[in-house]
Each structure stands twice: as structure tokens, then as C-alpha cells.
User: Fold this.
Amino acid sequence: MLQFITHTNERFDEISGSQSVLEGGCRWVQLRMKGASDEEFLRVGREVGRLCRAFGATFLLDDRVHLVEELGADGVHVGKRDMPVAEVRRRLGPDRIVGATANTFEDIRLAAEAGADYIGLGPFRFTETKQGLSPILGLEGYRAIFAWCRTAGIKLPVVAIGGITAADVASILDAGATGIALSGALLGAADPAAETRKIIEIIKNSKS
Assistant:
């Protein structure tokens, strides 16, 4: 699976960037606008949500649990400094998707116990699209954490995140990740839709 996490650059905003990757076949979009007001988030979220529905894609919000209902989102992704997973699950009920950020096996264990549906594990390497990064994991970090998950019987889907490029995808999936989350690698490409198609093909081939 491929998740696109929105951001902006000199060519794309959250709406046009989402449209490009959706046209390329991505079917999982997380709207992240850390510094935006709720009003601005709602304005953009209505358009990104409309696009996701038009393409049959899952639409998640980063952190803003209180806006899920208003935007008709499928769920949220919460970071380690955001609302606790158990509280998110209590507020949203059993039917919404709840994703949780993790940097260690212990993070994953706690999120699984609290009711998370999937884990965003990272960062793989340094990335400029996120502030306040946790320690870099790299392939060896992923392999170790996935081994602990197997030993503990934790089977939550785990999406790798953080500075990942197309060249990294196959090896990360081989290490045990269920999917990949990308931001800059897609919007920074000359043709984001084509780059999305290429990475989806790599994911399909890695899982076959």
C-alpha cells in the first residue's frame, strides 16, 4: 500500500498535489497541515476529501480528531505528541481508522494495545517535511523492530515513513513493512503521477 502525506512546494499545494498522486493510482491520502488554522484545514480538507471520494481513496486527517465528522474523513493519524490512541478510539468509535506514529517496538506495542489500526514507523532517514524527528531507524532498525513484532505476535500493518525514495521501497518492504508513506518523493518528482505509478508497481512486484 502507498500512503501520500500532503505538503506544499513551489509547484503544488495540498489539493493539486493530492490530485496528482490520485491520478497516479494512490488510494490513501493523509491531509497534514500542522500550522494551519481549523478554518484553513476545513477549506482544504473539503476539496481533498472530495477528490478522495471521486477516486475511491481512503481519506485520513493528521491529528485533527475533532474535524473527522465534519469532513467525512475515514479516520486520523496521530503522532506521539498528539491525542493518545485510546482517547482517539473512544471518540471516533470502532469504525474509523486510527493510525499511530511509532519509533520503537514499545511504541508499536502500546499503540496496538490502545486500539490502533495501523502504525506509521519511522523515520527511515532524515526528511525535511517533518519537524522534531525521532531517531533515524534505517533498514537495520526496521528489521529489528519487525522481528520483535513477530515474536510478540503483533500483526498490525506497518507503514514505513521518513525520507523514503523509490530506490528504497523494495528493500524496506523486504525488511517487513506492509506499506510505504511518501510526501516529498512524490511531489518533488518531475511528474508526480508517473512517479506514483512507478512506486505502486515496485510495491506490487515486491509483494508478488
Remarks:
- DSSP finds nine helices and eight strands in the chain.
- The CA atoms of residues 81 and 101 lie 9 Å apart.
- The chain has a mean pLDDT of 95.
